[in-house]
Amino acid sequence: MAESHTSVLVVGGGPVGLVLSCLLSGQGVDHVLVESRPAVSRHPRARGVSARSMEIFRRLGLENAVRAAGLPAEQVSFYRGRDLVDPDYVRTGPAREPGGGGPEHTPSPGLICSQDVLEPLLLRRARELAGPRVRFGTRLLSFLDDGLGVQAVVEERATGRRYRLRAHWLVGCDGASSTVRAGAGIAMEGPTGLGRYLSIRFEAPLGQVVADRVSAS
Q1: Average pLDDT of the residues of the chain
Q2: Residues 127-143: pLDDT tens digits?
Q3: CA 9 to chain centre
Q4: 8 A C-beta contact, residue 58 and residue 50
Q5: What pLDDT was estimated at residue 202?
Q6: C-alpha closest to that of 102 among 136, 26, 51
Q7: Three-state SS sequence of 6-62
Q8: In sequence order, which residues have a C-beta less than 8 Å from that of residue 116 and are 6 or more positions away?
Q9: Is the pTM here over 0.85, yes or no?
């Protein structure tokens, strides 16, 4: 089995892993990112982007692109009505401080930008900086801390090819069902299974119907 070396192995290519890859590249740190999915998310998933995240995107030169992809500030409101054409609808916006100022004292306030449009921007920048060392369609199978670093076995899902990666550091950015956390024996605390959710994504030509009441939700 072939073996290669890197300073940092990042497992997970969602927003956190991709941003970490960009930041490591900016500091000249050699690394490899592996993500089991073949491509970025097609589902909106998480939408809220905090001011601190926007400050980091600003540092990466991505703030303008993320803001252009996100929801315009005037549409960050909540719609309440019996249906989309309810004449008695109520539309409320986020709380504002007296005097019209916002609660975020930052040049890069947060916004709503769904994950399906955010991830491609992050992936493009990560690949610009790290090239083929950002590897989608590649999953972590196992890893071992031998006292000198971490020896990981990864697999290219399309071909079944496996190889070893030796790294000084392993970073788990692989979500709630983290392979890294489980392999490191780190248990989650607190109750689980608190709820079940279903998201349905569809597209419909409703622009003119909701033009006077466009809202985040």
Answers
A1: 91
A2: 999 999 999 999 999 99
A3: 17
A4: no
A5: 84
A6: 51
A7: EEEEEECCCHHHHHHHHHHHHCCCCEEEEECCCCCCCCCCCCEECHHHHHHHHHCCC
A8: 40, 41, 42, 43, 44, 45
A9: yes
- In Å, how far are 48, 98, 164, 200 from 169, measured between CA atoms? 30, 47, 14, 38
**pLDDT given for residue 130 in this prediction:** 97
- Identity at 170, one-letter amino acid code: L
How do residues 33-64 score in pLDDT, each as one tens digit?
Answer: 999 999 998 888 888 999 999 999 999 999 99
Could you tell me which of 127, 172, 164, 168 has the C-alpha nearest to residue 25?
A: 127
Q: Is the pLDDT of residue 101 over 70?
A: no
In sequence order, the 6+-apart residues with CB closer than 8 A to the CB of 153 are 1, 140, 141, 142, 143, 162, 163, 164, 165
User: Strands, DSSP E only, in the chain?
Assistant: 3-11, 31-35, 48-49, 78-80, 90-92, 111-112, 134-136, 138-145, 150-156, 162-172
